[in-house]
């Protein structure tokens, strides 16, 4: 099984699927913001940035999936982004469902000076909503809880794929690029 996963990770198809899934989540976030008029909060913008990190990881994996160094760098970026996104989603869910007096959410997005996306694209990266607001739910699960599920899945799959890198694929396989 781990041999097969190692082989899959050396295929551009797998990295493209990661790219496609991440683009679908980013497009969904933009639809919620611009199509449904849901104002994103600061934590929402940061979670979107984590999805962009996973998108970057998929592009790096697409560049040279057969080279171990590219796969490992891509996997480490993927895992860091998924872990950070999970923590942000968990923090947002805590603000929504079990707030304490010490919990707060900043009003302005604080991005690095070398990448001020909120200044370059304010319609996408400016936070205008409240982190504690429950604006959308599907199957009685709030958006922050969905993001916990999504980032948990990204994290679990990334850990398994990283572990699979220790196992070389066998010669008798049928998976192709």
Outline the biggest β-sheet. 2 strands, antiparallel
The CATH architecture name reads Up-down Bundle
Please tell me what the overall shape is.
globular
Beta strands, count: 2
- Might you state the CATH topology name? Bromodomain-like
Radius of gyration: 18 Å
Instruction: Quickly give the structural class.
Output: mainly alpha
CATH H level, superfamily name? DsbB-like
Task: Walk me through what this model shows.
With about 180 residues, the protein is mainly α. The model has no long low-confidence stretch (mean pLDDT about 80). It is built from 7 helices and 2 strands. The longest helix is centred in the middle third of the chain and has 30 residues, at about 70-95. About 65% of the residues lie in helices and about 0% in strands. One of its GO terms (cellular component) is plasma membrane. Keywords: Cell inner membrane, Cell membrane, Chaperone, Disulfide bond, Electron transport, Membrane, Oxidoreductase, Redox-active center, Transmembrane, Transmembrane helix, Transport. Its main location: membrane.
Quick structural gist:
This protein is an all-alpha fold. The chain is 64% helix and 2% strand. The protein has one domain: Up-down Bundle (Bromodomain-like), CATH 1.20.1550.10.
Can you lay out the helices and strands and say which pair or pack?
Layout: H1 2-9, H2 12-35, H3 42-63, H4 68-97, H5 117-120, H6 122-125, E1 137-138, E2 141-142, H7 143-164
Antiparallel strand pairs: 1-2
């Amino acid at each position: 099984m781990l041999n097969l996963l190692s082989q899959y990770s050396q295929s551009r198809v797998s990295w493209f699927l990661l790219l496609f899934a991440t683009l679908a989540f980013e497009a969904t976030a933009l639809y919620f913001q611009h199509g449904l008029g849901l104002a994103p909060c600061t934590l929402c913008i940061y979670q979107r940035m984590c999805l962009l990190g996973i998108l970057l990881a998929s592009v790096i994996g697409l560049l040279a999936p057969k080279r171990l160094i590219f796969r490992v760098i891509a996997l480490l970026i993927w895992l860091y982004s998924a872990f950070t996104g999970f923590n942000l989603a968990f923090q947002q869910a805590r603000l929504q469902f079990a707030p304490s007096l010490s919990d707060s959410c900043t009003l302005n997005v604080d991005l690095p000076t070398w990448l001020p996306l909120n200044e370059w694209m304010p319609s996408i990266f400016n936070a205008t909503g409240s982190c504690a607001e429950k604006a959308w739910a599907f199957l009685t699960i709030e958006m922050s809880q969905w993001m916990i599920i999504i980032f948990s899945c990204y994290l679990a799959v990334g850990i398994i794929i990283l572990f699979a890198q220790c196992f070389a694929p066998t010669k008798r396989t049928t998976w192709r690029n």
